[in-house]
Amino acid sequence: MKSKPAYLTLLLALLHGMAGITILVISSWFIAISAIAPVGFNYVIPAVVIRALALLRIASGYASMWVGHNDLLARIAGVRLRVFRQLENSKITDKAFTTEALAQHTEELASRWIAWIAPLSNITFIFTNLCVVAVWFNLPSTSFLITLFAIWLVAVVVQGLGALNIAKRVTKENKAFRQQSADFLNCSAIWHLNKAMNHMPKEEGRHVINSAPSAHSVWQQQTAQKDKAQRANWWFQGAAFSTVVLVMSGVFSSPSEMSYMPIAIVVPMILLAAPDWAGAAFHSISKFAQHKQSVKALKKLKTTPIQVIENTELQHSLTLFDFAAKNRRLPLVSATFPSSGIVSVSGPSGCGKSSLLQSIAGVLPSTGIKEVDGMRIPDGLIKNWRYVEQEPIVLSGSVSSNLDPAGMGIPVDDMTNLLAQLGLEALMPLSIWIGKAGRALSGGERKRLALARAILSHANVLLVDEPFEGLDVATQHKVCEVLNRYAANHLILVASHVTPSTLNVSSTLSLDEGSVGNLSKGQRLNMVT
Question: What is the domain extent for residue 344?
Fold first, then answer.
């Protein structure tokens, strides 16, 4: 990834900081000299210089933010693509490592330039050069400025070591909370037993389901991180104000330093303002600590390989015989699907519609026989078949990065045209940020975005789960038109409780027979037209 925007951000941040310090120095000198200036002193030139520096500071500040955030967006995309490549053909085995965790860690990695490299470099550069200039020009009270610089360095190092320890605990508590949440939600089917078990005698082996997990410990550690940075800032602020008092009292100053020339006010003013421009380092060092933990977490990411079936082109037919998702009490399906058209998979809730679609795509392991054009396909994830989930995942990123998460270079016109066809004009332009930190999407928008993502990948077979749920009639018709066009050359299996009249269904697979948990072994369901 090119680092030019990052370096430009750093230079603009340095320019912004130097302009601010220069304004402080010239303004303090200007105020002091105005009190003793003789008649005829030219007040215009210092005033013009201060205004010019103020304009430069404003311009460089906004430019730094603009370039920095554009660089951040590009880096997030790059970091996530690298993570996706690492996860290709693999499955995350750690339940606590959710999509949210991946998003958080990748953002920490991508934001390092604007989060801590630029601020820390900026402050260190300014502080160092102030001390050098003060020594070079032998400014009064230079020794106090150097002393404060040394105090700042020590405080940053000490606070940084503490921040690393807290960041480690935050990561640990976050992981534990996610694991507890996953376990708790997995027990949702037996929550109703909790009350009954509470009334059982202990001797009968009463076992109470754990209460809902709490994020209190996570918040405690995060608050501790902020408090530590704030305390370091207060200590530094106290040290800065103490040096100002010592300078003005003249207790440790030599007679030569007890100068009443206007230039003597420069160092005290810098010391007085130091907490404002140098105190930000303590929060930046906390970001550095979080970055280090994210690097470690991604390096320790545990995955297991997934059996991947290379691109499988469907020319004539897809045949299932005694087919079902593995290790689930679901009906065995025997059916033959054409190479194109829309097949509706119907049935009551819990009859296995989603499991069937996932097992056909290879997302879930399966039993039975699956054949494409008469050739048996082994169990595994089929690369160019797409399952569009009922609750799609939306990445914290731009619309374009959500439509092209693998960075395949999908044309912008293809993206915008398809979004318009699906009634998603509100998500344009494609640079709009959506997901956790951006615009929140409704359930219907998430479904249509996921459908667009699958279609743009040119999937040979689409398996769509509840695409019409939560959509009004007009939007349902738009989705039907898109599916009808795509089905002219592709096979689409749609599992839905709602089948709009405008959807061109060529055949129906009904899962109405029997019910989950009350199936006889070997029960089969056949497709009807």
Answer: 308-526
Beta bridge partners of 494: 344, 464
For residue 191, tell me if it sits in a domain.
no
Torsion angle of the four alpha carbons 223, 226, 227, 232, in this order, in degrees rounded to the nearest 10: 160
Which residue ranges in the chain fall short of pLDDT 50? 1, 196-197, 202, 204-209, 514-529
Cis peptide upstream of residue 429 (ω within 30 degrees of 0): yes
pLDDT per position as a tens digit, 258-268: 555 778 888 88
Identify the bridge partners of residue 371 per DSSP, sorted by sequence position: 319, 376
H helices of 316-428, in order, are 353-361, 399-403, 412-421
Q: Identity (one letter) of the amino acid at 325?
A: A
pLDDT score recorded for residue 485: 93
pLDDT at 517 (0 to 100): 34
208 within a domain of the structure (yes/no) = no
**Which helix (H) or strand (E) covers residue 126, if one does?**
helix 118-136
Quick one: which of 144, 334, 326, 322 has its CA closest to 241? 144
Contact criterion met (CB below 8 Å) for 21 and 86? no
CA distances from 359 to 160, 322, 330, 387, 453 (A): 49, 13, 12, 10, 20
Containing 91, the helix (H) or strand (E) segment is strand 90-92
Same domain flag for 261 and 316: no
The residues, any chain, with a CB within 8 Å of residue 8's CB and separated by 6 or more, are: 67
Which of 478, 456, 479, 477 lies closest to 467 in space, CA to CA?
Answer: 479
Alpha-carbon distance values, 350 to 335, 353, 520 (Å): 20, 8, 16
Contacts of 512 (CB under 8 A, 6+ apart): 346, 347, 348, 351
Q: Among 298, 297, 405, which Cα is nearest to 78's?
A: 405
In DSSP terms, which residues pair with 305 in a beta bridge? 90
Structural domain contains residue 192: no
Beta carbons of 527 and 335 less than 8 angstroms apart: yes
Output the domain CATH number for residue 312. Answer: 3.40.50.300
pLDDT for 364: 84
Same domain, 111 and 221: yes
Query: How many domains in the chain?
Result: 2
Residue 376: name the closest of 309, 453, 452 by CA. Answer: 309
- Find the radius of gyration of the CA atoms of the chain: 32
Q: Which of 497, 496, 508, 462 is nearest to 482 (CA)?
A: 462
CB 310 within 8 A of CB 502: no
User: How many angstroms separate the CA atoms of 269 and 352, rounded?
Assistant: 73
Give the CATH number for residue 107: 1.20.1560.10
pLDDT of residue 266: 85
CB 265 within 8 A of CB 293: no
Do 279 and 296 fall within a single domain? yes
Strand partners, 90: 305
